[in-house]
Amino acid sequence: MRVLSFLVVSALMLGACSGDDDASPAPTTTSVLPSTTTTTTRAVTTTTVSPDAALAVELDRVERGIRGADRAEAALAALGRDQDDAYAELRSAPERLPAVLALLPTDIAPIVAANAGAAAELTPLTDPRPEFPPWTIRPPLPRTELLALYREAEAASGIPWQYIASIHLIESRLGRIVGPSTAGALGPMQFIPSSWDAFGEGGDIYSDRDSILAAGRYLADAGGAPGNMDGALFAYNHSDHYVAAVRAYAELMIADERAYDGYYFWPVRYRTTEGVFVLPEGYPEEPAVAAD
Predict the structure, then answer these.
(1) 3-class secondary structure for 141-156?
(2) Is the pTM of this model over 0.85?
(3) Residue among 111, 215, 223 nearest 171 (CA)
(4) What is the rounded CA–CA span in Å between residue 195 and residue 185?
(5) Are 262 and 65 in contact (CB under 8 A)?
(6) Is the pLDDT confidence value at 43 over 90?
(7) What does the alpha-carbon distance between residue 86 and residue 94 come to, in Å, rounded to a whole number?
(8) CB atoms inside a 10 Å sphere around CB 118
């Protein structure tokens, strides 16, 4: 994880010198004078920035960068990973949130509050596990390809694509997780098999495209979205916490769809009784990495 601490040091160099290359020869008489030497004085000012201030600076940087003009994949990837690290730091110490928000500019504070709030809503939905999950972690489909699938689902169902992307983010980190939930849900949109039978239209439950389109159908037909979006989200997962989290991420993408470009690069984090671990792409062949 990024270590969010900064030390600002400024130094002022003061010098004094004597002597002249064109000086006259020394007199023959003896003069007792103090010797002249060159001295240097260094004045150092050290300022330690508080952890809350450092975290506020980092959150401001990543949120502005994600919404900035540089859309290069490498730049967005670095920003997305740093964004995830910053919010992970907040998740580990939620009591810091009010202080961090107070230090943020007024245009960035609501974004941070919404992202942190979504994570807080999701935390009660899963307990730390004593063992690692029986999952495979794969790379997601390309960022623009996934966005095209969300838009396709919106066109077919009338559900704003941002809600479908938000569900995809929460359920499988945009398709990275391949494996069952503790409730037996399957695929990148985590369908119970009976629901898949009703809405999958014969598709492949493990296909991102088929599952994304099925999620749009489910929200519209079973839940009454987009007219009753909260009711549809509750039908998808019977939890008010879940509804609040999906809505928070979706509304940030509705406000500025470039928010999606940060979420796309968030890795899989998994809570165990021993701490939080990142499950990298290639897991289980690639080992889990302690996040703290």
Answers:
(1) CCHHHHHHHHHHHHHH
(2) no
(3) 215
(4) 10
(5) no
(6) no
(7) 12
(8) 23
